[in-house]
Amino acid sequence: VMLKNCNEHNHEKCDEKILNRQKINNAVKRKAEDDISIRLSNILHTEFKNGDILTLTTNDVILIKQNIHHARSLLHPKLPQSTYETQNALKSMNIITNNDENFMFLNDFEKSIVGFSTKISLNVLCDVKKIYIDGAFKSCPKYFTQIFTIHGYFKDIYVPLVFLLLPTKDSNIYVKAFQHVIYYCTSLSMTFHPPEMYVDFENGIHNAIKQVWTDIRIKGRRFHLGQSWCEQFRSWVCLRNTSLILIKVDLKYFFGLPFLNENEVVECFTEDLMAIKPCNDEKIDKFTDYILNNYVYDDVAQFPLKIWSDFSASTNRTTNSCESFHSKLNGFFQLGHPNIFILVDTLLGIQSDIYVKLQSKATKKCKITLEKEQFLREHIKKYSSKQICRFEFLKSVSFKFLPATI
């Protein structure tokens, strides 16, 4: 006679601590697999905040982290060990956005250039009048030097439209990358020929742009100009001595030069700023000579006045939105130089946000931007009507738009 009893279990009851650890492990693992771009620490903190952690130990947390890393490693193929392997892995992937658009439009094995964008983004790129370009290095994957982003000024916001992985910062690589974008746009019956481009103060990128588009207007961004001058300011001018506080204040007036008319900069530099410059100070002389030779005297300047001088109330050249984007991009990764698969997943997530921005109505400028533009308009009006002199105008705008790092 055989008896069947399904309600009795003879094994020992599982430890509540183990069950609780497994419950948390499963929840965290599921979230980590759903979005591999989310930092592991963020997932753990969220789960620990809402879950039962009274029974967890340090060893439990280590075990949970190991399980998550293992689960994520199974989502993608073996990590590539060279540029060629990286591009080959991308070639084998079907990278599609959540809008069913092909995302990778470029995979140049000869020049080691990879490009990501969509037809919708490229259509906006070819339509906007102002283009902003900037490179990032920390978020760039291994075997590449930088992730190069092309932004468009669309509906009063700055939208990243093209992402390029570049092997070097050489001018010929920039030329080839731009040509690839142009050719691909042409294949889609679009024309990528921007009238104006805002870039960093880097000779390689300036030369490349002029080689590709001979009639384009190249504009330097005040954010990068301020960074460059700040670096020289800190390198050559000793500010630790309290007796030099007034010198520091006077030298900050230099940062108002970009807000003057092109034909006024040289006169302001030689008459106003040189008049207050302390004499017999080699370090200060080096700082002023650097600005004079590289930015002011057009005959010898690497970056002539027409690139960075602009007497207008627009803050388009002041914005650091591109740098803000790269800062946010870096924040997606636990460590610098993420693997290519994590980067692609992250860019796909960013592309989803881009779709939302492009289809939304024009947004209002933020309060800070509006206040800055109003400040500029008021002081430009005062200066134009001779209510204030040139040097008073220079002092006012220099302190209003002084880089935060100085």
UniProtKB/TrEMBL annotation:
Organism: Sipha flava
Entry-linked Pfam families: MULE
Listed InterPro entries: MULE_transposase_dom
Superkingdom field: Eukaryota
Protein name per Swiss-Prot or TrEMBL: MULE transposase domain-containing protein
Residue ranges occupied by any MULE transposase domain in the UniProt entry: 131-225
Membrane-spanning segments: none
